[in-house]
Transmembrane protein 230
Amino acid sequence: MPARSSAIGGIPNSRVKYSKLSASDDGYIDLQFKKSPPKVPYKAIALATVLFLIGSLLIVIGALLLAGYIEVTHADRTVPVLIIGILVFLPGFYHLRIAYYASKGYRGYSYDDIPDFDD
């Protein structure tokens, strides 16, 4: 009977060297489970800061307009300033809060929760 060859390149089985796996080897290496250091999304945090500041400014201006501290000729234009300020403020505050807690290392907060604009 001729010698059988393996499926890889026709090497005879008698020349292939095998080694027995240890009993504790489960096929994983420790490097697989190491976490890489978090990548800080600086552009997204800068955008969140800008949104936060613009929203805060618009909320303050809208509140002063509604309270009457700033005299207005068209009173129907004061409420939209306040609404736009709130709509701009909320995402900025939310992402800055996540960035702050992630930088302090609080459990459950990560920079991965902030959308990154790098492609």
